[in-house]
Amino acid sequence: MTVRLEEMSANEFQQYLSFAIKNFADEQIKSGNWEPHEAISNAKKEYEKLLPEGQNTENHNLFTIRYGDKEVGVIWIAERTDAKGFIYDINIWEESQCKGYGKKAMQEIEIFAKENGMNSIGLHVFGHNKVARYLYEKLGYRETNIKMEKTL
After folding, report:
1. How far apart are CA 53 and CA 98, in angstroms?
2. Per-residue pLDDT tens digits for 80-106
């Protein structure tokens, strides 16, 4: 299976941004971090802070994941400090999930990171996302922090 990472076009970035803001807001609500009435506004602020120059923000690389001519998802990696990369987002579109594209995209982003001087990659995964956690563990990522909470 050949999966390619292609730099997002301006149009793809705008479509991604609309999806990502809503998705991030939904994940924050599921995690109990944000109230529904504030989630979209908070998510927009986070994306504006992280990507002040949109897809042209320095040290941020946003890719469309392709299998053949088909767009199957997106991945966003940034070089943060001291040659450390951070994956801010990876999403495989629903109709393309469970076909190995996520695993292949993660392997491709590791190649990209090495070629661009990064010697480690971090990422955040919501605790309720067991599928993603399993994938990352299979690929050799280890937990470095765990935040827990109990609703009373």
Report:
1. 33
2. 877 899 999 999 999 999 899 999 999
